[in-house]
Specification:
Length: 212
């Protein structure tokens, strides 16, 4: 639709410019020619004024469109790599389909197909599948760059298609986490297990003292 409108505006603009040049070539122009030139200039001005409005409409439409995007997520889970599809747009994505040029695999060699079809993603909502531990992925992965096309429908049923590409190489020599919070939260989860071990050790020591 955008292309059709742009083509029509371009044809009108070129047509009016051609008419104005043709009329000016008839020198000296008669009174009727000046009237025709004025009319052509009015149409040209109207056509030119539509271009900025069309651009604003495109920006607003792009801002409200759904935008499901696959990427590697290394920060949500400590020492675990996930393949995540997140709707980065402002509109709800329906019937999301991911078409890979080269399909990613888990560290055990299994193809990842779970994210190929997603019923719906709300704005900023995401779904993910575990690929493996971060260390294994960096050590064993030979194919680290992936690309393809993400297709979806908006609430009106319009189909949107976006090319994507991402790579694991960009994370090899960079800090995975911006702070120590993921490690801290991971270690906090170990506190109940350690307390259980301490309690068992205390009970065993108390038992040995009674027997002594």
């Amino acid at each position: 639709m955008r292309s059709v409108v742009k083509c029509l505006l371009a044809l009108i603009t070129i047509g009016m410019i051609s008419i104005i040049v043709f009329l000016l070539s008839k020198w000296p122009p008669q009174k009727e020619i000046w009237s025709s030139i004025a009319g052509a200039l009015a149409v040209l001005a109207a056509a030119l004024s539509v271009w900025p409005a069309l651009r604003i409409l495109e920006i607003q439409e792009d801002a409200l469109r759904p935008n499901p995007t696959p990427y590697f997520d290394l920060t949500s889970r400590y020492q675990l790599l996930q393949l995540r599809v997140k709707n980065l747009g402002s509109g709800t994505a329906h019937d999301v389909r991911i078409k890979w040029d080269k399909r990613p695999h888990k560290t055990d060699g299994e193809e990842i197909t779970t994210l190929d079809k997603i019923v719906m993603l709300l704005p900023q909502q995401s779904v993910a599948v575990l690929v493996g531990t971060t260390h294994q992925c960096f050590q064993n992965s030979t194919d680290t760059s992936f690309s393809g096309v993400a297709e979806c429908k908006d609430a009106a049923g319009k189909i949107w298609s976006t090319h994507f590409s991402f790579s694991l190489d960009e994370h090899r020599k960079s800090l995975i986490y911006d702070d120590e919070m993921p490690r801290t939260l991971h270690d906090v989860q170990e506190i109940p297990n350690q307390l259980t071990k301490i309690a068992a050790a205390i009970r065993e020591a108390a038992k040995e003292l009674k027997e002594a």
